[in-house]
Amino acid sequence: MKHKELTYKIIGCFLRCVQRTGTRIFRIRVPESLAIALHDSGLEVRSEVKIPVWFHGQQVGQFEGDLLVNNLILLELKVARLLDRSHNAQLLNYLRATDIEVGLLLNLA
Predict the structure, then answer these.
(1) I need a labelling partner for 49 at 20 to 30 A (CA). Which of 16, 38, 63, 69 fits?
(2) pLDDT (tens digit, 9 = 90+) per residue, 37-88?
(3) 72 neighbors 3 (Cβ within 8 angstroms)
(4) Where are the domains of the chain?
(5) pLDDT tens digits for range 9-48
(6) For the domain with range 4-107, which CATH number is right: 3.40.1350, 3.10.310, 2.30.30, 3.40.50?
(7) The whole model's pTM is what?
(8) From the CB of residue 89, how many other CB atoms can be counted at a distance below 10 Å?
(9) Collapsing DSSP states into helix, strand and coil, what is residue 79?
């Protein structure tokens, strides 16, 4: 698995955020809370990452990813009772539109 240690560190930060704040409070500000935890763990974090969408060599729009960690792993954060195929498809589309090879779909619910 690519970026295995970094992936485990990210998941650990996510779980600690949930444990420390409880899911109710954490749900309100998931990206901000997780970004702080990741930064405090020594990781580089970018929020609301703009991902251009191209068609026939022209930019036709952009996606907005939730968090990018160390310019290597894209995080897509959800608060959903159940994740479905559309959530996976969204993350895969983001990855296909970039050079980023690893994405994590994290669900709080």
Answers:
(1) 16
(2) 999 999 999 998 898 888 888 888 888 889 999 999 999 998 888 999 999 9
(3) yes
(4) 4-107
(5) 999 999 888 787 766 655 567 788 899 999 999 999 999 8
(6) 3.40.1350
(7) 0.86
(8) 10
(9) coil
